[in-house]
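Weekly sync notes, structure subgroup
Attendees: PM, AL, DS (notes)

Item 1: joint prediction request from the bench team. They want all two components modeled as one assembly rather than separately. Inputs as received:
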Amino acid sequence: MNAAVYALPAEDWQHLDLQTSHWVETIPLYGGMEWLLSAANALANLSTLPDNWDGAGSPPIAPEVITKAIDVLCRFRSAVEPMSHVSPVPGGGLQLEWHLRDRYLEIEVFPDESVEYLLEARGQAPEEGTLLFSDANIVQRLVRQLSTRQSG
Amino acid sequence: MWWHRGTFDRRAAMSRNLPDFDDPPVVETALGVEFVPLEKWSIPQFGLFWEQIRTEYPRFEIQPPVGSQIERFSAENRPSPPTVTVTAVGVPDVRCWFLERSGSRLLQVQRDRFIHNWRKPPGKAEDYPHYENIRPIFEREWNRFCEFLHRESLGEPDVVQCEVTYVNHLERGKGWSSFGDIANVLTCWTDSEAQFLPKPEGMALNVRYAMPDNQGRLHVSLHPAFRPQDAKEILQLSLTARGRPVSSRINDIVAWLDLGREWVVRGFTDFTSRGMHRVWQRKEDRP
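Output from the run, pasted for the record:
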């Protein structure tokens, strides 16, 4: 196997995200990533909702649903725009929302831990579907929607 | 056979006089070796090796390979920058994770690496099993890997470096509550008598230490992080010792791992404050 080897200048190599031998997953909290922590805390606080929290018989939010929602956040961590709002959904789900000037993204985590999304952008037809983590393309595309410059 | 170690047991000696803690913040350890890439190693060999260990390691994951990070020493004692390998054609390099049944151990294999990781399993109150119990597992698994290479005529690994990594998680609220408290955590950080600057909003540190006689280096890094498994904010303090063993024989590999582990443990103890040692319940120094 032929391989080309390039030595980067010293000022560049320190910025490379080199793979490590670490196993335990963590996400560094700098470079604008701090919103992730406050968003995760907001999600975690919803674990204290009691049975019948909506007066309509909804169950508490299951820990697995909160874990799944945090997983969603982690996959959207590189988005420039932080999550705007989170709310419990009757039936035991969670809804995560990003409100931007000209677009809106809503992600709902259902009690069975399935995930669906709704994207509305000015001048475009709304788009909705199932968010499969195994499909990296769709996650990347939605993250781009939260990161590209908004029109005036 | 050439890879079997002798009967000399260093366990008692290797623990003597090293600092010890009843409740250490370690969440992961990794013992590994880097060797000259095995020319005959390709994708099928991952499956053949998995067949040998599958009963203990029933799951696998494919990961991007870890880049070579050889410690080099020049006259100025500065590390060389890593190189980036871009492969235009051919089979891409991959790393395979073989996950042990309990969820607390992992083998990582690629054509120039063999690494054994222990981690605190998510959601379980498993204590750190200590190096004395982890190292024999590494030895056993490395021997098994070498036996596999020998049986498949894949060559004998020419080990160029050993590596010991300990990852520690310092949870916010356990000894520190803001970045203004870092001087209470680290011995190398003092509260400046700042006239102008407020308390820091965030911080990250990378420090490296050369071992005597070019035996290797200890890398220490500290950065704030988010731990998704329980949504906690932590300071991740990682210590990695790397260096070249005298030879590829298991005795020499283990001797270097013992040295690296000593540097990690003593380095961790020097790097962190007595106040944090109380939080982690440091045991009385042994005679």
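Discussion: The interface with chain B takes residues 1-8, 10, 13, 16, 18-30, 33-34, 36-37, 40-41, 43-44, 66-67, 70-71, 74 of chain A (CB under 8 Å).
Action: AL to compare against the crosslinking data before next sync.
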